[in-house]
Write a structure and sequence with these properties.
With 287 residues, this protein is of the alpha/beta class. The protein has helices at 21-31, 64-77, 102-112, 131-136, 151-165, 181-186, 207-213, 249-272; strands at 8-16, 34-44, 49-58, 81-85, 92-97, 119-125, 141-143, 169-172, 191-196, 218-225, 235-242, 276-279, 282-285.
Length: 287
Amino acid sequence: MNAASPPCFILTLSCEDVIGIVAEVAGFLARESCNILDSKQYFDPATRLFFMRVAFASEARTEAEALRERFAPVAARFAMDWAMHDPARKPKIVVLVSRFGHCLNDLLYRWQIGALPVEIVAVVSNHRDFYQTVAAHGIDFHHIPVTAATKAQAEARLLALVDETGAELVVLARYMQVLSDALCARLTGRAINIHHSFLPSFKGARPYHQAHARGVKLIGATAHYVTADLDEGPIIEQEIHRVSHAQMPDDLVAIGRDIESLVLSRAVLAHVERRVFLNGSKTVVFS
């Protein structure tokens, strides 16, 4: 943003659908001398909820806090779940990883070239494999081993780190530990996981080898919010790739790594761009 450009903000909201929401929001922005740059909305007939995302520029150069204070009465009138974001402030994220580094490396590269507008404040792992990789990027690496006996203490350390760093989002980049129900509850809507789309068909070890043995023709990956229901949280992003009988298990693993990396980065980007809305057990994701 150059010196002459007005500050831009993103308003996100959801509420029970009633007549007049869009008119009230547009009217408020007009009264505040705000120019709408992009607006998307959706009504879900199943949940009777309305969702809206508006990007706008404040031609009067009003600060975000003042706009929030003035919008609060409008939001209260419709009982909105809402937030007003400053896209110039990069969200802080903590990345969790175990011993498969493809998703971590992809996130680090996208962050490094500016394609992923976040601040990675820490990488946490239950192993030391990626210490040098993370340190080379100037990011704090935290080794937090996890065993059945130390799981509660390890999760307490992780949660303390999230709080200390002010991280908005936790990204499980092939973190091979199941989070406790209590931690899942604390991170509701704030933790994204990635897994191969075979679940629940091919659970356990070597899923791509299981898939090959069954002769699958499509493989893929799913990124979703973490919940206490293992790998069944609200889906954010998915991708598939067609394969054939001629491809061996190692080929499927290689293709799967690429898809997992792509899907996770897309999901994280959608979240930090404020395009994802929780809608019960599913999501609304604006393009």
